[in-house]
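Our preliminary data section would be incomplete without showing what the modeling component actually yields. Below, a chain of 200 amino acids is followed by its predicted structure, encoded as tokens that our downstream tools consume directly.
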Amino acid sequence: MHDIQPRIQGVWPGLRELYEGIEASTIGHLCEAGYVHGLQPLARPIRLLGNAVTVKLPAVDGSAIRPALIASQPGDVLVIEMADGDQHRACWGELRTLAAMKKQLAGVVIAGCVTDVRALSALGFPVFSRAVSALTTRALDSGGAVNVPVTIAGVQVRPGDLVVGDEDGLFILDPASALEIGKQAHAKQRDEAARRQQLR
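Predicted structure:
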């Protein structure tokens, strides 16, 4: 039985619009909290921006991803915590990517592996993961939870958090603090653009 909690819309339209042009490296100049170390884009270029829908998987079992996909809405990012010792397994592949694209999700973040790399690369869906693996999870319906706090590479992620990622890395931000960080990031990028123009 899965523990399915209500979806939380923490990212409001104005906050998403604020972060449209903000680069992960700019955020990294302003704060360290929320930086997800060790996960990489499956393909480049990549841009990931959205509202977190979290998934916590039990050992070997990836079946909780299905209700998470059903509960998600356009613009959401699935953030998936793997069970201890399962980081070498793939819980995400071509069929789940197709389902996510049909739902118009913004991307997926996995503290584990992906598979079907050739198909995923062709589809171009934004994916951050630890690695690639041919060993997969199973559909056992043994448990798992959706929209509960999870931990990804040491970073706690709550449902409704802001997910921002690109070629330089990935941040998970509390929407309450993300507004001020976003304003500072916009100002910094404006200053850098002016300096860049001077140098040219």
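The helical segments are 13-18, 24-30, 65-71, 94-102, 117-123, 175-199. The longest helix spans residues 175-199. Preliminary results of this kind motivate Aim 1 of the renewal.
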